[in-house]
Amino acid sequence: MPFKYQLGFIFRRYALLIALLLPVSAAADTWQLQAGAQDSGMAHQALAFLPNEIWIHSGDTITWTFPAGENHTVSFLALGQVRPSRLAGCPGVPNGVTPDFSVFDGTTCVNSGLLANTSGSASPPTYSVVFPAPGNFKLVCLAHPNMTAVIHVLVSATPLPHDQAFYYSEAQQQRARLLSSATIGFAPNHSSSKEVIAGVGHIAGNGGGTQTVSVMRFEDATKVIHVGDTVEWTTEEAVTSHTITFGPEPSLLQQIPPSANVTTDPDGARHAYISSPSDAVHSGFITQAPQDRIGLAQAPLSATRFRVTFTQPGIYHYICVLHDQLGMVGEIVVMAQ
Ligand SMILES: [Cu+2]
Predict the structure, then answer these.
(1) Residue 196 DSSP SS3
(2) pLDDT tens for the chain, residues 1 to 337
(3) How much distance in Å is there from the Cα of 235 to the middle of ligand 1?
(4) Of 3.40.50.2300, 1.10.287.130, 2.60.40.420, 3.40.1110.10, which CATH number belongs to 195-293+301-335?
(5) Whole-structure pTM over 0.85, yes or no?
(6) Across the beta sheet with 135-141, what order do the strands follow?
(7) How far apart are the CA of 242 and the centre of ligand 1, in A?
(8) How close is the Cα of 33 to the center of ligand 1, in Å?
(9) Burial state string for 183-219 with b = 16 or more CB within 10 A and e = fewer than 16
(10) Taking CA 238 as the corner, what is the angle to CA 212 and CA 186, rounded to the nearest 5 degrees?
(11) How far is the CA of 154 from the centre of ligand 1 (A)?
């Protein structure tokens, strides 16, 4: 074969090889991400999408796995939609929940409903969303303020900056960093032998939005006191709510306000008197007021402290109704004078 034909043969062979090696961009991909993470004792909870930023092609699907014992939602609201409660979810659909593999293009609300791996199963729940249209979409968890992410959906001709291996590794790094930093920045501003800290947590930010991490525990949860003493619970949380609840748990819809036997002290702390371990006393949500935003009315202060005065001896168990399944419980032992 003359040399010039040999060159042509080699060129055609390599052209075929190069064509075979180029990525096929037409096929839709499924990406794997995570909603929430915890340490082995469940006390430290990363209330975060891991990672919380991803670039995909239109037509791709994202599957979120829910490995933690704490409840989360994968929720996409329509632009300008008022944020619903975690129990209400999307308006106009049964239970506020849209089916697995719902389609989100920015116009109609999509919501997984509350999902958690409460049994510690090796195959935790998952929820998938399909993204047919290009755009930049905010992802939120309806159970946790400041748990946000962004999905960048690009047209299929645009190369993607990262592959699945990158996102697996980023999820691991963000998980480790959040869980190990749970008590960094922890700055108790008040303490006495009769004080219990009701949860510690903070917010972290990055290019994808915000993530939070919480210690789901009452610090010094057990106190031994005398009749007539008052114990004070104080939150050291940035956003996550907790309750201090004695006796039967209120129903889901009755958990935000305090029980009727709780009064407010002049400094705004909530206060109750308990005379029997069978008394039902519920603090309601002990939490920070939401962050103010320019153009919106300033939010009123909220209760960050709860006091209970014990008038009879006994052993009084209490729980946080939101996080008792993670081990957020305690006990007050009241001795006679
Ligand atoms: Cu709690």
Answers:
(1) strand
(2) 444 445 444 444 444 444 444 444 458 899 999 999 999 999 999 999 999 999 999 999 999 999 999 999 999 999 899 999 999 999 999 999 999 999 999 999 999 999 999 988 999 999 999 999 999 999 999 999 999 999 999 999 999 999 999 999 999 999 999 999 987 766 666 667 899 999 999 999 999 999 999 999 999 899 999 999 999 999 999 999 999 999 999 998 899 999 999 999 999 999 999 999 999 999 999 999 999 999 999 999 999 999 999 999 999 999 999 999 999 999 999 999 8
(3) 10
(4) 2.60.40.420
(5) yes
(6) 53-57, 144-154, 135-141, 75-76, 110-111
(7) 4
(8) 25
(9) eeeeeeeeeeeebbbbbbbbbbeeebbbbbbbbbbbb
(10) 90
(11) 39
Domain spans of the chain, in order of start: 30-180, 195-293+301-335
User: Is there a common fold for 30-180 and 195-293+301-335?
Assistant: yes
Domain over 30-180 is classified CATH 3.40.50.2300: no
- How is residue 144 written in tokens? 């946790």
